[in-house]
Design brief:
Layout: H1 2-15, H2 17-28, H3 39-47, H4 53-86, H5 94-115, H6 126-131, H7 136-161, H8 165-197
Helix pairs in contact: 1-3, 2-4, 3-4, 3-7, 4-7, 5-7, 7-8
Length: about 200
C-alpha cells in the first residue's frame, strides 16, 4: 500500500491539479477508487510547498461533483426504466420505487449532504438523486458542500500527517467516528425545522 501511495504522490506531482480532478471524479462515481489515497498525498505535497492546499481542495470538490454528476445522469436517464423492469429481483416494485422517489423529492437535500459524509455511501448517493430527478442546482450545491467537508478533512490530514498511510487511516477513523454525532445533530435539527415549518 505504501508503494501505491508513493506512486500516487509521484503521479499527482507530475500530472498536477488535473490529476486530482480526474482521480476524484473516478472516486465519486461508482468506480472503487478511495479518496483516502488521492487527497492526503496531495495535501502532503502542499505541506512541501509543491502544491497549493486551497487549489487541492477546489480540485477535489470539482472532481467529486463531476463524478457525482456522472452517476446522477445515468440514474436520471436510464435508472427508472431498468429499476421498474428488474427491480423485482431486488425486491423493489413500482410502489416501493414511488415511495423512494417521494422521499428523495422531499428530503433530497439533507440526504445528499449527509450521504457525501458517510464512507461507503458517498459514491452511491447520487443514484437515488438521479432516479428521483432531484433539482440539478440543489444536487450540485449539496454534493459540493458535503464533498467539500470531506475533501478539506482529507487535505489537512495529508498536510499534517504526511504520506504515511497507516497514520492517515488512523486519523481518518477517529475523524469519521467524531463526525457521527455531528451528523446525528444535523439530522435532528433538520427534522425539527421541517416539522415546525409544516
Amino acid at each position: 500500500m505504501n508503494k501505491i501511495i508513493a506512486f500516487i504522490v509521484t503521479s499527482i506531482s507530475q500530472i498536477g491539479y488535473v490529476g486530482i480532478i480526474l482521480l476524484m471524479a473516478l472516486e465519486s462515481s461508482f468506480f472503487p477508487f478511495p479518496s483516502e489515497i488521492v487527497i492526503p498525498p496531495a495535501g502532503y505535497l502542499a505541506s512541501l510547498g509543491k502544491m497549493s492546499l486551497i487549489v487541492v481542495v477546489i480540485c477535489g470538490i470539482t472532481g467529486s461533483i463531476l463524478g457525482a454528476l456522472f452517476n446522477y445522469y445515468i440514474a436520471y436517464k436510464f435508472g427508472r426504466k431498468y429499476l421498474i423492469k428488474y427491480g423485482k429481483y431486488l425486491f423493489i416494485d413500482e410502489h416501493k420505487f414511488k415511495k423512494i422517489e417521494v422521499f428523495f423529492q422531499k428530503h433530497g437535500e439533507i440526504t445528499t449532504f449527509v450521504g457525501r459524509l458517510l464512507p461507503g455511501i458517498r459514491q452511491y448517493i447520487s443514484f437515488p438523486a438521479g432516479l428521483a430527478k432531484m433539482n440539478l442546482v440543489k444536487f450540485i450545491l449539496y454534493t459540493g458542500v458535503g464533498s467539500g467537508i470531506w475533501v478539506i478533512i482529507l487535505a489537512y490530514v495529508g498536510f499534517f500527517v504526511g504520506n504515511n498511510i497507516e497514520l492517515v487511516k488512523n486519523n481518518l477513523h477517529k475523524i469519521t467516528f467524531y463526525m457521527i454525532p455531528f451528523i446525528v445533530i444535523l439530522i435532528v435539527i433538520y427534522i425539527f425545522n421541517k416539522r415546525r415549518t409544516n
